[in-house]
């Protein structure tokens, strides 16, 4: 899942790889990266910077719902609460800052237009050299992250035990395909994957 405590520039070939993996058009991904760079310091976003880019981005989202009828303080409170929820989920190393890898991971996981299988496989492939298998430590962490993001009330330890019981193991690890299929077919997670999360999604290339 990654432990990136220092920001770094993202190479063109990495953007190519992400585009190929998840199907985001390359020019759109380039614009997302440019927007990230405009707001971030040293290729990292702190929580306040993430709040800013989140508020700027949601106005350009195709799923954006006009909430101008709300008092500005209430609208600001709601936006901050949602941004903080996303930030906490993807700040995996608990540094209080998001790298572009973590930022784009959040972006992809919230894109309902991308299939759940592609989203999950991106998360698993991009952040760990897992060779097609999920370790207990990584599996529990992914379960917790998804539960936090999608608001699913679950016991990640119990979910992992269910996987161990129902999936073929290799040295205590679960096949990635079996892991993704479990969540795609799980009623609570499937509902979030297919019906969407009540979080506005960052769109491509806003003018910050």
Give the SSE map.
Elements: H1 12-22, H2 26-39, E1 45-46, H3 47-58, H4 72-90, E2 97-98, H5 100-109, H6 116-127, E3 133-134, H7 136-150, H8 156-166, E4 174-175, H9 176-185, H10 187-195
Antiparallel strand pairs: 1-2, 3-4
Keywords: Calcium, Lipoprotein, Metal-binding, Myristate, Repeat
InterPro entries: EF-hand-dom_pair, EF_Hand_1_Ca_BS, EF_hand_dom, Recoverin
GO molecular function, one term: calcium ion binding
What does this structure look like?
The structure is a single chain. The chain is mostly helical and 208 residues long. The protein folds into 2 domains: 12-109, Recoverin, domain 1, CATH 1.10.238.10; 116-195, Recoverin, domain 1 (Orthogonal Bundle). The protein has helices at residues 12-22, 26-39, 47-58, 72-90, 100-109, 116-127, 136-150, 156-166, 176-185, 187-195, and strands spanning 45-46, 97-98, 133-134, 174-175. The radius of gyration is 17 Å and the shape is globular. It comes from Adineta steineri. This is EF-hand domain-containing protein. Pfam families: EF-hand_1. Belongs to the recoverin family.
Summarize the structure.
By secondary structure, the chain is mainly alpha-helical. Helix content is 59%, strand content 4%.
What is the global morphology? globular
Order of helices and strands: HHEHHEHHEHHEHH
Major β-sheet profile: 2 strands, antiparallel
SS element count, helices: 10
CATH homologous superfamily annotation of the largest domain: EF-hand
Distance between the amino and carboxyl termini = 29 Å
Q: What structural class is derived from the secondary structure elements?
A: mainly alpha
Please state the second-level CATH architecture of the largest domain. Orthogonal Bundle
- What is the level 1 CATH name of the largest domain? Mainly Alpha
Averaging pLDDT over every residue, what do you get?
79
Helix content: 55-70%
Low-confidence stretches: 1-5, 197-208
Strand order of the largest sheet: 1-2
What is the strand tally? Answer: 4
Family: Belongs to the recoverin family.
GO molecular function, one term: calcium ion binding
Keywords: Calcium, Lipoprotein, Metal-binding, Myristate, Repeat
Pfam families: EF-hand_1
